[in-house]
Amino acid sequence: MYENFTDSFSPPMINGESLKSVKVTKSLGVFLDSSLTLERQISSVVSAGFFHLRNIKKLHPFLPHDSLATLMHAFVSSRIDYCNALYIGLPLKLIHRLQLIQNSAARVVKNVSRFNHITPVLLELHWLPMQRRITFKVLVLVFKALNGLGPNYLQHLLTPYVPARPLRSLHGLLLRVPRMRMKIGERSFSFCAATSWNALLINIRISPSLSTFKSSLKTFLFNGVFNLS
């Protein structure tokens, strides 16, 4: 029975051409695996990040702090931030691998030992940790979509929350959180975007411009992660 099922299976086709099934493919520089675990992508970013980090570390005796920070942003931070909205909802063990790169980069820039606690270093550099950097990117995409600054397909994934009866929340620009039948559905953009957006203060959601939103959002996330008043 299984053999007949396998023999009768037909691969998907587009314009008469059969689509070949692959375990991993690359699109716009991002590795996408068949299960969308993004493990191959994370491994690629980690490998490249530490490669550049080791080279920059060799320049530490010859460059001032500002130059080191510029190199870190150009060769390390830019890599871990590239398309990082895809990482939302991933297991923390994968995000932790990216956090290790950022921690190492911060220690090189500030010239502190790997035995030093990293929180004061990130605080001094004013760097958001990886989990919050991902949330920042997603929320910027949400703001753009809701204000006509982003692609229409993202706007279609966001549904304004309309309460059954008039409430103050009606004027808070909240989003409806879709119900997911499976846990993996909570990794979707529509779910993560809505839950993260609704957690923002109303004055951030109604920011008059993108630049104001970004500034207020970073302050909000930064104060939250470092417990600042």
From TrEMBL:
PANTHER family assigned to the protein according to its UniProt record, in alphabetical order: REVERSE TRANSCRIPTASE DOMAIN-CONTAINING PROTEIN
Protein name (record): Uncharacterized protein
The organism of origin for this protein: Latimeria chalumnae (Coelacanth)
